[in-house]
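Re: export button greyed out
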Amino acid sequence: MREPRRPFFKNLLRRVPMPVLAALFGLLTAAAVWIVIDPIQTRAIGNIFREELKAQLETRARESMLRFDSFVQSYVNTTRLLANHRRMADYLEPLVWFSADEEPPVVYLDRQPLWLPASAIQGLPVKPDYAVLADTGGKIREVYQLAQRPLPQEVEPELRHAIASAGQQAYITRLNGLLYLVIAERVEDASYYHMGSLVLLVPVNSGFLDASQQRAPDSEITVALVDGDAQVILAAGGNDALLEGAAMEGIQDRYVATVQSFFEYGNTPLNLLFATLIPRDIVDATRSRIIAVERRHRLTGAAIVGFIFVLFFIFISNRINRLLKRVAAFSSRALHIEQPTPKGGNRLLIMEDWIRSFTQAVMRAREEMRARYTAEIEEREALKTAVLDASLDPIVTIDQHGRIVDFNPTAEQTFGYGQQEALGRRLDELIFDRGSREAFNSLLADCLKERESDVKPVLRTLTARSKDDRILPVEVAIKPVRLENQLLFTTYIRDISERKRQAKEIVSLAAFPSESPLPVLRINRPGVVIYANRASDALLDYWGCNRMQTVPIYWKRVVEEVLSTGRAREVEVTTRDGIFSLLLAPVPDLDYVNVYGRDITAMRRAEEEARHRQNELIHVSRLSTMGEMATGIAHELNQPLSAIVNFANGCARRLRLGIGEKEELIAAMEQIAAQARRAGEIIKRLRGMVTRKQPVREEVDLNTLVADACTLVSHDRKKLQVTIESRLSRLPVVARVDPVQIEQVILNLLRNALDALEAREPERRRLIISTGITPDGRAYIEVEDNGAGIAAEDLKHLFDPFFTTKKSGMGMGLSISQTIVTEHNGRIGARSVPGRGAVFTVELPLSETAMESKAS
Amino acid sequence: MNQNGTSPAPTVFVVDDDEAMRNSLRWLIESVGLAVECHDSAESFLDSYYPGRSGCLLLDVRMPGMSGLELQEYLHRNEINIPVIIITGHGDVPMSVRAMKEGAIDFIEKPFNDELLLDAIRNALAVNEKQREKQALRAELAARLATLTPREHEVMEMVTAGRSNKEIASALGVSAKTVEAHRAKVMDKMQASSLAELVRMSMLVQE
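Workaround output, generated via the alternate export path:
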């Protein structure tokens, strides 16, 4: 609250929520209106009620009258029925009254006369007091008395009068102080012969009146007969017997009476009036009830209006609240004015205050912004000037006529003109020669044509000329600046002579690989050859692709691999034109691989040649070994051959002499076959060693090779009486080798060992050959002898070619063994304690399957 | 003769480490009705052989363990006289020569000519028979020699050395007459009918 001196009342008003205020205000107004309007309204309602009552009463009175008439008429009809009844006719037919008779009339008291039908009188709502039968002369002859009192004498003249007017009109008269309805009917036979008259005298009392109205006992409407002259009630319906004999004035305060003339029944001296009475308290109660109902309706209406009024104000209040919030959010976001939205209270007043303070805040914010903007503009202007001055490129501002308006220091330096010198001159004439001048002007024109919205600096390379006549290649960009009353162009001129020189240098650098006599290529990650020099044609031919095409899938993978590992890789390729070693060097930043080729055809051919020679040598060595072993092998072969001869001779002799069982002969024959096979085996093995084969690699159990080699030296070992102790691994030791070559190595070692044992006494000669797998997972073969051993001096030269300590032999055995083992990625070594023996070890890599099975 | 008596049928002992060779030899030799006993090593042969068994030995020179030559040497050293036929392979000539020097009566080369082999065996068996007779005679003579007194022994040595009675008498320091008496005793004990016979007996014993 920024206004502390707010009046208390206004403060209170602010606090009260608007719907509450609206409700209060509505209530007060309604109360005021009510106070003014209610009496008027009530009076008006009273008047209307009275009018209405009057009309109602008249209608009621008329209705009562009509009911009375029809009631009377029903009596008339009954009387007529009785008069014309068969009983009446049957009674009167034979009866003759004499006019002279002074007989008193016959009175029926307890019994019903014969001339009346049995139930005729009983069926009437109000029984007549008397039924009188008179003769044609009007003289009363028979009276049926239903009342207590006998028919008084004085009624005779009255009856006569009535009989005289029989069939005319029933009427009411006062007889003997009581009101009676007199009904007279003529009794006639079928031929309208007048036989007498029937007169009914029905008492008009409260019972009669009530019956005439078919009135319920508690009905509020009462009818009465009034003596018009005396203004006294003669008979009245209802329970209020007090009414009878009362004066009309006397009952005005209790009853509302409607009086009607009653002339139809009035042909008597009596001036009868028919009155309809309604108790005043009932009318009043009805009136007040109506007023109350009307008032209740009015109140309900007012309440509904009030409720809607309040709802409307709640709605308005909420809308205002939302509006306030939105404005507050907007102001805080767009104008940075923090104006809290009030939570409760009178929205209208709050809004008023809020808008006032908001307006002030906006004004302040506008002031601040203007100040900041001005400061910014000033700053930017200063910065711009600094930029212009410090720019490394010449920046020249010209007006729409091409005259120089601003010339920055770099421009001064570049073109050699001072600012004072340049200002006001046409830029095109100042620094461009004729050719470029036109280009510059057309650039300027283009610039103008561009719509302001998509202005982008147009760049063009032109030739400029400095004051000292240096030719400068420049790039020019023009940006129009539309000021309010002026069009300026900022012209950026960049001296690109240095860049051009660098470009040239790069181009000449780039020519390097193209001049290389060896393939140089560049392949990107998707495997597209981006660059390939002329020497790469052989490679591209091999790949079957061209420049800017994709290399085969295998090479694509190699490129990807090199890129993902980030390590250079060397790959060899044999093309039609030669063998290339390709160095793939990744350039991860640019996502491609540089490929440098090297022609290694000659090198590979030389290697191939060397390998060929080596194989030759190995073979020759093997042949010579076999030659040296020929005696032993021949002996070995001799064994089965001799056996065969013996068996064959034995058979021949037996057959010749006719001795020998068939079975034993067959067994001998089988022996012959077995021994022939044995000889064949030896020859096969021999041939394997002698035949020259291309080096191969196959998975072989080294134990088998050792066993085979042992067989080949069995003759020599027998000659030396040496038993070879085999300590072979129980599991197969599988290596991927050339079996013949490895057997050759084993053979060499065995023979060396046997030779070494020659010097030792026969019974102490020991030769152990063992196989197995080293702890680091390599296959090994070990040959151990307890011969003389090898001198430390000789150990060094053991594997040199032509090194030998023996009298015979070329000294190639171990050298070639080493060559073979090295070719197999293996190792051969020797250790010895002179005088006690020597151990030779060959280590070979296990085959991959063997490694796997070992691992599992 | 021999205390164990002579076995009526001579046996051909085959010692060879090669089973096929043994079986084939048995098959061949049995075809002429000779008994054959095969051994796969010299040691096995020595285990089952006792001196005096008649027969011959068919021996492979080249064997693991005790070789043919060693066995021959052993027999020689232990004065077991059994004729040895050496079986040699092709080109084992130097070894065969050594064997012959050691006293082998024959050598035969693989593969065998069956006639040659069988002849050699027969020959060897005949030699063995003679040897056995000679052996028996020598044993007899040795027994007779054992009956001589030491003086008679001295006299006999001197007589067979060709010395005269006089020389013997002076050498022994006795009279010639005494020498004469000893000499007669010796001749009697040795059952020699003449000096020449005595000399032959003496040579036989000393062999």
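Residues 52 and 132 of chain B are 8 Å apart (CA to CA). The button fix ships in the next patch.
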